[in-house]
Design a protein that fits this description.
Elements: E1 13-22, H1 29-35, E2 36-37, E3 42-52, E4 58-61, E5 65-66, H2 71-78, E6 87-89, E7 104-106, H3 119-142, H4 146-149, H5 159-176
Parallel strand pairs: 1-6, 6-7
Antiparallel strand pairs: 1-3, 2-3, 3-4, 3-5
Cofactor: a divalent metal cation
Organism: Candidatus Thiothrix putei
Protein name: Transposase family protein
């Protein structure tokens, strides 16, 4: 699932977001620093996911990275290129990340220093957040798999990647068997 599965029509609305999962605290101090996430105040690993708004399927799952690494840096390293004509909704954590040629990017407006957002800008940010909440629901659907929600204790190489891929596949299967409500 590391490659982008393209939609037959080409143009689609997508949402990108990062997800963090707790891991067991490493013994080595250098490794501890690498995996410590200041945001979660714990040792974590991260993945970026891209989901489709219309079908709520996970279209892309990035590699697993250390919790210290920022979402945008992960996106830059993976060089995720979306199909031309796609529309991507993203949060400010991905500001400046290149998503490909001919891709429309929709992101909230950042509050300027020592100034306030206008009521119109606040309303636009609310509307973007309301559309982006879909990805948060999908990530919670992935984390139904308890080994992703709790502290991950397995030390086998690349097994954390495999668990995340299985959880995403189970989410897509569960989602495809559901009656459409949207």
């Amino acid at each position: 699932m590391h490659h982008f599965r393209s939609h037959p029509e080409g143009q689609q609305e997508l949402i990108i977001d990062g997800t963090e999962r707790r891991i067991q605290r490493p013994v080595d101090n250098d490794v501890q620093r690498e995996y410590y996430s200041g945001k979660k105040k714990a040792h974590t690993v991260k993945n970026n996911v891209i989901v489709g708004c219309a079908d709520r399927h996970i279209k892309y799952l990035g590699d697993t990275h250390s919790g210290k690494k920022h979402d945008k840096k992960i996106a830059d390293e993976e060089q995720t290129q979306l199909p031309e004509g796609s529309v991507i909704l993203r949060d400010l954590g991905f500001k400046g990340a290149d998503m490909g040629k001919g891709v429309t990017v929709i992101e909230p407006k950042k509050k300027p220093r020592n100034k306030c957002l206008t009521p119109q800008e606040k309303e636009e940010n609310r509307q973007i957040s309301a559309r982006r909440v879909v990805v948060e629901h999908i990530i919670s659907g992935i984390k139904r798999c308890r080994c992703l929600k709790d502290v991950y204790r397995n030390l086998k190489d690349d097994f954390d990647d495999q668990i995340m891929e299985i959880a995403c596949g189970l989410h897509n299967l569960r989602n495809s068997m559901r009656n459409p409500i949207y």
